[in-house]
Design brief:
Elements lengths: L9 E3 L5 H11 L7 H10 L4 E4 L7 E8 L20 E9 L8 H15 L4 E6 L4 H6 L3 E3 L2 H6 L8 E6 L4
Parallel strand pairs: 4-5
Antiparallel strand pairs: 1-2, 2-3, 3-4, 5-7, 6-7
Length: 172
């Protein structure tokens, strides 16, 4: 994989960042809580898919992402156990930015980087579960909703306003 430089103020997450990032997730996504051990498991299973926005050393955002199977999102606050050997999409489990750091372009800048990162790993799609009325945000970035009965069942833990979304990567 080619060496990609991180967008400004972003860096790889470290084990010592996990607790602080998890606490930020509780603040940013209070309706979608995940236990610290579930958050930490994602880091342990795929640390190269975990990143923090940490200007001046203070964590004000994070991303957790990993290889997954298409149309098989993990239920909220549930263990992955392991990553699938037959992963066919790069899944963005969570992106959280502190309210005081929103609207500065940091999430979009990082998403652009993450598309190249996923493509360099051989993935042709990015996928995610949109919550908090964020569907239009993701649609403006090229994601499309995928709806099936099975997906509706799997997304039940996220509530009525959850959508599984996919974006084809153009540089694959």
């Amino acid at each position: 994989m080619q060496q990609l430089s991180f967008p400004t103020d972003w860096r790889p997450m470290t084990a010592s960042d996990v607790d602080q990032a998890c606490m930020l997730g509780d603040v940013v996504h209070p309706a979608y809580p995940e236990r610290t051990e579930i958050f930490a498991e994602k880091f342990m299973l795929y640390p190269k898919g975990c990143f923090v926005l940490a200007p001046e050393g203070i964590i004000v955002g994070y991303v957790q992402s990993y290889p997954a199977r298409s149309a098989q999102p993990q239920e909220l606050d549930s263990s992955l156990g392991q990553l699938p050997a037959d992963a066919d999409t790069y899944y963005i489990h969570d992106i959280a930015i502190a309210p005081s750091w929103r609207r500065r372009g940091k999430a979009i800048e990082f998403l652009n980087w993450l598309e190249v990162f996923a493509s360099c790993q051989g993935f042709h799609t990015l996928s995610l579960t949109a919550v908090n009325r964020s569907r239009s945000f993701w649609e403006r970035r090229g994601f499309s909703v995928l709806e099936t009965d099975m997906l509706r069942e799997r997304l039940h833990s996220y509530g009525e306003d959850a959508f599984y979304m996919v974006k084809e990567l153009s540089f694959s």
